[in-house]
Design a protein that fits this description.
mainly alpha; 0% strand
């Protein structure tokens, strides 16, 4: 999911050439609008909600959250 997240960031125009798992959205110079745009793309592409992500969330944390949210929920 990390690679998918980086691809989504690239898709919205974020420079991903030097990202690591510990990079935060703030370090990528994102703002709340670009984080919202990322959340919409994540919902469309992987069917996962990005609820709870902040500018201080690391990419590793975000990827794990998206992967968990994308898993089918059992009844």
């Amino acid at each position: 999911m990390f690679d998918k997240l980086v691809a989504m960031l690239f898709e919205i125009g974020i420079d991903t050439s030097h990202v690591t798992a510990q990079t935060t959205f703030r370090q990528l110079e994102m703002d709340s609008l670009s984080l919202t745009e990322l959340a919409v793309i994540a919902a469309e592409e992987v069917g996962a909600s990005a609820d709870g992500m902040t500018l201080d969330t690391t990419l590793d944390e975000a990827a794990r959250q998206l992967a968990h949210a994308a898993q089918p929920q059992q009844a």
